[in-house]
Amino acid sequence: MTDHIAAAGSAGTPKDPQDPHDLHPFIAGLPKAELHVHHVGSASPRIVSELAARHPDSRVPTDPEALVDYFTFTDFAHFIEVYLSVVDLIRTPEDVRLLTYEVARDLARQQVRYAELTITPFSSTRRGIDARGFMDAIEDARKAAEAEFGTVLRWCFDIPGEAGLESAEETVRLATDDRLRPEGLVSFGLGGPEIGVPRPQFKPYFDRAIAAGLRSVPHAGETTGPETVWDALTHLGAERIGHGTSSAQDPKLLEHLAENRIALEVCPTSNIATRAVRTLDEHPIREFVRAGVLVTVNSDDPPMFGTDLNNEYAVAARLLELDERGLAALAHSAVDASFLDEPGKARIKAEIDAYTAAWLAP
Ligand SMILES: O=C(O)c1cccc(C(=O)CC[C@H]2O[C@@H](n3cnc4c(=O)[nH]cnc43)[C@H](O)[C@@H]2O)c1
Ligand SMILES: [Zn+2]
């Protein structure tokens, strides 16, 4: 698939509705998989303002338009501070259920057939939401979303690393306790700031999660160098890497990722919004593809970064000079790198192929 992406033709200018090479309509209907998107970070401006109005003690604006300014970040630390102010708005299992269901609706509107949603249960349980109520809320929403929208949701529980080992212990407990572990849980992650939060200290928690059958998908190399990605591979058994942006600085690492089919969950607009990368044109996604790394494109925290998955595909089309077939190959890569079972993967890939063939038919 990566070869196909690299070999694809030109994308044209994707904004002009008169432009025959405008890829937006194709992308909008393309069946897709989303592998790196955060639960709270997906709250739409409508949901955030609704929750902010419910909780007037919060400093989050109630006016959706004011959220554009509120969601403009000076750096990664500022992003996390704002992110946590939105986390503070989610106070009951019903808030959790509503948020999850609405996130699924937004994904379904973009023809996302399968999504692995990163959830930070520690942030909710430490704020007083009962663990049982939390799990029931996400599972209710998952089942409703699948029945009503046809979008399959799976969960990645992540440790908010900066909150310390207490958060790691609680996250692994929630992920592995048979009485609590939700049916939709497939993977275990690590998020938040990387500076001052060395990955190796989380090894015992990842070992326990992996032993319980979960797949390992830590964030690494988003705001620190390639050594963090090596640490995630060596100590945390990473099977995919969240972001992995700085991998581009280490040719041996790129070779290792390519040879071992360790996919990168690339989130281009996120990297600009948090100022991890200066400009889209400087984004290393092209280097990843050139090195043969399995690249998936994702939205991370879409409303906070003024994006969505369709826009990320349009960004990738521009940066990688993809045409429709190249975009279909990119959609295949996400399915290949997902933790869906083989029949599920084959079904979505057949849908992608049928859609693309019909679109390109004379
Ligand atoms: O919940 C708390 O009380 C808490 C205390 C201290 C630190 C934290 C965090 O660091 C939470 C980080 C939070 O950020 C999520 N997230 C969303 N997008 C990204 C991203 O691009 N890179 C890293 N983390 C991200 C992550 O899932 C955590 O939930 C919390
Ligand atoms: Zn992320």
Going by CATH, the architecture would be: Alpha-Beta Barrel
Low-confidence segments, given as residue ranges, are: 6-14
Order of strands in the sheet with the most strands? 1-2-3-4-5
Give the number of domains: 1
Cα-atom radius of gyration: 19 Å
Q: Give the biggest beta sheet.
A: 5 strands, parallel
Shape: globular
Sheet-strand content, in percent, reads: 5-15%
CATH secondary-structure class: Alpha Beta
SSE-based structural type: alpha/beta
Helix share bin: 40-55%
The overall pLDDT, averaged over residues, is 94
Could you state the order of secondary-structure elements as H and E?
A: HHEHHHHEHHEHEHEEHEHEHHEHHH
Which hetero ligands occur in this complex?
Answer: ligand LNDFFVEH, zinc ion
Cα separation of the termini = 24 Å
GO molecular function, one term: deaminase activity
Pathway: Quinol/quinone metabolism; menaquinone biosynthesis
EC number: 3.5.4.40
Cofactor: Zn(2+)
Please give a structural write-up:
With 362 residues, the protein is an alpha/beta fold. It has a single domain, classed as TIM Barrel (Alpha-Beta Barrel), CATH 3.20.20. The chain is built from 17 helices and nine strands. The chain has helices spanning 2-7, 24-29, 45-54, 66-70, 76-87, 93-109, 121-125, 131-149, 165-176, 203-211, 226-236, 251-259, 268-273, 285-290, 309-320, 324-337, 342-360, and strands spanning 32-38, 112-119, 152-160, 185-191, 215-216, 219-220, 240-243, 263-266, 295-297. Strands 1-2-3-4-5 form a five-stranded parallel β-sheet. The chain has a four-stranded parallel β-sheet with strand order 6-7-8-9. Strand 6, helix 11 and strand 7 form a beta-alpha-beta unit. Helix 6 (93-109) packs parallel to helix 8 (131-149), helix 9 runs parallel beside helix 10 (203-211) and helix 16 packs antiparallel against helix 17 (342-360). The longest helix is centred in the middle third of the chain and has 19 residues, at 131-149. The chain is globular and about 55 Å long. Residues 6-14 have low confidence and may be disordered. It binds the ligand O=C(O)c1cccc(C(=O)CC[C@H]2O[C@@H](n3cnc4c(=O)[nH]cnc43)[C@H](O)[C@@H]2O)c1 and zinc ion (ZN). Its EC number is 3.5.4.40. Residues 31-354 form the Adenosine deaminase domain. It catalyses: 6-amino-6-deoxyfutalosine + H2O + H(+) = futalosine + NH4(+). Keywords: Hydrolase, Menaquinone biosynthesis, Metal-binding, Zinc. Residues 1-24 are annotated as: Disordered.
